[in-house]
C-alpha cells in the first residue's frame, strides 16, 4: 500500500487509516474478533490507526491497545479527547485540567507511553484555543505526544489556531479530521483549501457516509448499531433529503458498474482522489467489511468518472444538512438572535 506524507511532518501514513469506533460496545463486542480485524488491517499495509476516548467509553482504546502492544513501533497511533467521559462537567472539554488528566487515561488504555497524533475531537467555545494549545504543547515537550491535531474545525477556526500557535510559539495542529464523502462535500469549499494552504494533513472520516455508500442501503434499511441510532435524522427515510440521497446512491451504483468498481471502491476512491486528502478513515465492524474496503486503496478514479460524480452531486454541497458536523455552536438559537 503506497504511503503518503502527513502534512509537513515527514511521517508516512497509509492512504487508508483504520478507524476503531466500531470496536467495542458501539459495534463489534467480540474483543478477539476485533483484534483479528486490526491485525488483518496491519498485515494489508495499513499503518495508521485512529480511535478516541469516547468510543464505547474507552473500550475501543483498550481493544486497540491489546492488538498493537507488540507492534507499536510500526504504527502511527492517533486518538482524540474532549467529548464527555461521564457526568462530571470537568471530565470533558479542552481545558488544561482535563487534557492533562485524560491523556494519562488514554495512554493507559492504549498500553503505550506515547501517542503519535493527539487530536481535539471537537472545539469548545468555553475554552480559549490558547489554553488548549498550551497544554498540548506541554505534552509534546514531555514526550507523551508526538504531534497534535483537531477534528471538525471550520476554516476560520483552523486559521485562528495557526495564528495563535505562531504568535505564542506553541505547537500547531498538523492535521484536521473532517467528515467527507460524495454525499457530504461541504469541506471542499473552505476546510480543504485552508488545510492545504497551511500544509496540514487531512484525515477524512465517514467516506461511506455512515453506510449510505456501501451499496447495501435502501428505502427499507434502518440503523442497527448504537452509533448510527444516535443520528436518526440521517436515516429517516420519510425526509425528502434522505429520499434524494437514495436517488443519488442509485445513480452512483450505475456509475460504479460502468467503471467496473464496487460502490465502496468508487466512494473511497473519490475521497482519496482529492489532493488535499492524506488518508481516508475506514471504520469496519466485521472482517467482511474490512476486506471489501481494502481494495479502494489502489483505486485511481479517472477525470471522466470524477466529472460524472460532479454531475450527480454538486461540488461543495451536502445533500442532507443533518449530515454536517459544522455550525452546532455558531447556529445555536442564542447565537442567531438579532
Silhouette? globular
Helix content: 25-40%
The residue ranges in which pLDDT falls below 50 over 5 or more consecutive positions are: none
Strand content: 5-15%
Number of strands: 10
Describe this structure in words.
By secondary structure, the protein is of the alpha/beta class. About 35% of the residues lie in helices and about 15% in strands. Helix 2 (about 60-70) packs across helix 3. The model has no long low-confidence stretch (mean pLDDT about 95).
Q: Which helices and strands occur, and which strands form pairs?
A:
Blueprint: E1 4-5, E2 12-13, E3 16-19, H1 31-44, E4 48-50, H2 59-68, E5 76-81, H3 96-110, E6 115-120, H4 129-142, E7 145-151, H5 155-168, E8 173-177, H6 191-197, E9 201-205, H7 226-229, H8 240-259, H9 263-273, E10 279-282, H10 287-293, H11 303-312
Parallel strand pairs: 3-4, 3-10, 4-5, 5-6, 6-7, 7-8, 8-9, 9-10
Antiparallel strand pairs: 1-2
Helix pairs in contact: 1-2, 2-3, 8-11
